[in-house]
Records
---
Amino acid sequence: MTDGGRLNSGPLRVHFLSALGTDYSYCRYMQRAGYDAWFYTDNRAHPRLAITSYHPVLTEEEVTRIRYEDLLTTSPLSLGVQARDILRKIAACDVLQCNGLYAIWAAISGKPFVYKPFGGDINHWPFLDDTEEERIRAWHIRTILREATVLLGLLHQKKFVPALERLGIPLDRVRSWCFPMNAHAYAPLPRERWDWLRQSNDSEGRFVILNCSQLMIDPIRTLQYTKGTDVLLRGVKAFMDEVGPGRAVLWLVDRGPQRTEAREMIEGMGLTPHVRWFSPLARDALIQLYNAADVVFDQIEPRIANHGYICIEAMSCGKPVLGYIDHDHRRDVAKEPPIPNVNVLDERDVRDALLRLYARPEERRETGDAGRRFVLEHHHWEKASHAHAAICREAIALHAARRGGTAC
């Protein structure tokens, strides 16, 4: 047996199919960890989700391992010359990892593949059939979920469990989420690196609450989740009423499908003088915002009941993170390690947590330190990439066993 089941031909070779910067992170850090990883994408990614939003600087070697193909406008079902060429290229690997509709290529390739969800593709897309587009997309997603060798992180979000049952997908095909990130970049910075942010935003000497999640109050049809922006705003208003005017400030990043509704709520509550707005930023630019804040808000969504990327990034910078996690689900169902967030579910929880952290700087420091230790242990790329490679190898072995062969 050799690394990844290959016959002494080199390290595990993984092809990633996606348009998302978060998926490129897996590829990039697996390259750095010594694996033969390549990223296949197209030019149709939303700029906020694209590679450069997460990784604005790439080495020459990293650039050469990104391949652009017509993955969305060419159908693998056509079996035309272009489709066959794409299938030949992407299948020249040990295992594939895919996101969204790109995974239909993997399903047809005959290779083992890991499918990584993004949200509505599990609990919502498979069940939409009001339009021709929705029926086509539902067929693709159902095929992908049925054919995937391993499903990555599907138990991370609580809402996926009933969807998996409804789709008849056994939970033993699901593996825990192990998103790799650079904890040396997302790290506590010297004060002079971020203090100018407070000075230029009239926040010196104030308690800074940062929310850089999307502004979402009501579910939208294609995703069916929120971020709990309304809960945060009501909790912050109650907190500011307690501590008095001028002692705290809320920093918001102006992004998300319900920015207008959020601004209306802010104005109606009288919070406008206490809010500072930031334009949407590339991910690495958030490092200074995390460092300049006293606390960071992730998300409150009981149907998800777990954290997102922002939680990991802020913890890596040593900041306490407020958000809602069902810790029993995380431990018993998702099989994920305990995470030291500050758990809040409603506006009273938000108010009380902010009052406590405002009054106890030592608790802010201890909670932030615990979060950074968690990230270093579980998400820093040097460990997470090898953990992810183990999942890829398992997918290879499972695929071979299902086909009656071996992984060697």
---
Amino acid sequence: MKKTIPAFIAALLITLVLGGGMFLMGQDALGTSTAKADAAASAQVSNVTAAQYEQVVSQYQAREAQYQEMIAQASRQITTANQQIDLANQQLQQYQTLIQQLQSSGLVTIASDGTVTINQSSQSAFMQPPANGRHNEGNH
């Protein structure tokens, strides 16, 4: 549930950016083709006006490139966030497994209110030195 909300927001953001870009490109295509047809048909259109149209086209193309980079950056951020979420979920699963093992072995007891109790028999096992006077060196 926690992953779906950020994913939905990211998808919505990407859709809006892409939709806006396509809308601007569509406007650009209609405006440019009409402007070029009018310029060709009318001998009174000055070179300055044609240059202005070309400048507008180039500005739209620059904006489109900027939007594409923003989309790519947002996609990279989403991928990174999803990787972090996956890692956190793996760690959480490891903690849950550890707690379950501690409970099943009787070392700890967890009450319904969340209170954790370390059982006395397990405390004395932790406090006593090993019988042979050496630590288990193979498990480090």
